[in-house]
Amino acid sequence: MSQGTARSRSVRRRPARADAFTLIEMLVTITLLVIIVYMLAVTFRAASVAFNQTRITVEAHQTARAVMDMLHDDLVGARLTRPGAGQDLLFECADGAGNDQLNFTTTAFQSARSDPAAPLPTLAQIVEVRYYLDGDRLMKRVDWDGDPSSDNADDAETMGFNVKAVDFRLFDRGGSGRPGWTSDGDWPRTFGRLPAAVEVTLVVETTDNRGDKKDHTLSQVIYLPNSETQGG
Q: Of 79, 102, 150, 202, which one has the greatest count of Cβ atoms within 10 A?
């Protein structure tokens, strides 16, 4: 009995082996964690940049589309009639080397936005409209009082921001009678008829979160139903 008791005590006195990581195992684990965190950070940054670029592109196209819609509404109502007796016909496209101007008369409604004092609803009237670029803003000026030379000029409203360039091209019969696109500025003020269509090209500049600039170009052809070439 004494020998068995001594043997059991010696077994109990033997220290148990500690379950712990070795230094090499800890280094390998830390290295793997660093690699995983780095890969996640790179993936997140790439996704963030892609999302930001997509957002900027969408906003640029929304700006251009809103301008196109307004131009479409005005050009569809274009008329070769100008308010006031003795005034000439007006449909003029002035070339400005990427800064074109488009002047024409159209049927428009004077809303509370253009004249807060005007009662609503008001009847449509023939007005002179001018689209032009002022710095990086596309402006629209409407002559509601029928007197473009008046000292009390109507305030222009901003139709789009960050517009780098605007270009108008007109489609109609040329001097030879054959249809085609006119050259910039090749549309006399007293041409005597409306063009069949107007091509509008906008260049909208955007800046991302890194300060990089990018141009977005959007074009649209707008047909004028009141043109004699269109059968109006």
A: 202
Q: Which residue has the tokens 């409203």?
A: 157
Find out whether 217 and 183 touch, Cβ atoms under 8 Å: no
Ranges assigned E (strand) in the chain: 78-79, 91-94, 101-108, 125-134, 137-143, 157-160, 163-173, 179-181, 197-207, 213-223
How far apart CA 212 and CA 6 sit, in angstroms, is 83
Give the end-to-end CA distance of the chain in Å, rounded to a whole number: 125
- CA distances from residue 62 to 16, 71, 179, 208, 227 in whole angstroms, order as listed: 72, 14, 32, 16, 29
Q: How far apart are CA 119 and CA 65, in angstroms?
A: 29
- The residues spanned by each domain of the chain are 56-230
Residue 73: φ, ψ to 5°: -60, -40
Q: What's the number of CA atoms in the CB half-sphere (13 Å) around residue 228?
A: 6
Amino acid 201 reads: T
Nearest to 203 by CA among 161, 169, 171: 161
